[in-house]
Amino acid sequence: MDANVLMTLLPQAPLFFAPDVIDLDPYGSAAVFIDSAIRFIANGGLLCVTCTDMANLCGNHPASTFAKYFSVSVKSTFCHEMAVRILLYSLDLNANRYKRYIVPLLSISVDFYIRVFVRVLTSAEEVKASISRKSYVSVCSICNRFDLFPIANRLRPGVHHATQGPVGHSYCDICRGTTKLAGPVWNASLYDPEFVDLCLEQLKERGQNLATYDRVNGMLNVIKEELVDCPFFYHLDEMFSLVKSPMPKSLLIFSALSRLGYRFSYTHFKKNAFKTDAPAKSDV
């Protein structure tokens, strides 16, 4: 039986209890199952979603991405993180229709797929607030400089105002390359630090015999240190290739950022990449 049919018919059965956990792990996109899963799962339940259609989510087929996720991706050095944020945006958008919203617990990009773990909760007030957690993204086609433009800004609890559009962003003010508009995407945290700590604790207690223990442990530790409030990242190799300069040791770059008062962290999305709250011009 088709999963969507099952999730539609089961609530009509006697003695039905909404499931606390649903795992969507199809071949390709999970988009066609998202709406049913959001409606089917219990309040506070854990929804796990895997997508392997990375060609769509990484900007190769914008029209297909929009048809499935109601968002547009563009090719960039951080396309895998954008893929995760597009999926989270789509999950939250579907949830909002039913006065529900999502709270990401863990979001990862591994090999050829992305996987997210979110809680699905019900709250009309939080649904209203979710508009501030969605943004459009302007991306430079040459240097990958990015700017986020929230769909709306929160003025006070329950009151939001449409944000100013990306006027004057047709060209990058760093390299003068043309910019492209992507999104909307999820602009908030990709994980819950307490949940990641719990995963690490359980991994050490019960996962010592796993063949992939070292890889999972390493990835979770990197995710634990990632800046939660800094969407997207910069890639060191590409930055210094752009300015035709040898790449210094990353420690020197991070020390300079620290002395200037900025935060930074590595990211699991790409090797030799880092997140920071420094302005783009300070990075380049």
UniProtKB/TrEMBL annotation:
Which enzyme class, named as a word?
transferase
Kindly provide the name given to this protein in its UniProt entry: tRNA (guanine(26)-N(2))-dimethyltransferase
Q: What is its EC number?
A: 2.1.1.216
Domain of life where this protein originates: Eukaryota
The entry sums up its family as follows:
Belongs to the class I-like SAM-binding methyltransferase superfamily. Trm1 family.
Per the record, what are the reactions this protein catalyses? guanosine(26) in tRNA + 2 S-adenosyl-L-methionine = N(2)-dimethylguanosine(26) in tRNA + 2 S-adenosyl-L-homocysteine + 2 H(+)
Name any one GO molecular function: tRNA (guanine(26)-N2)-dimethyltransferase activity
One GO cellular component term of this record is: nucleus
Q: What's the source species for this entry?
A: Thelohanellus kitauei (Myxosporean)
Biological process annotations from GO: tRNA N2-guanine methylation
What keywords are annotated for this sequence in UniProt? Methyltransferase, RNA-binding, S-adenosyl-L-methionine, Transferase, tRNA processing, tRNA-binding
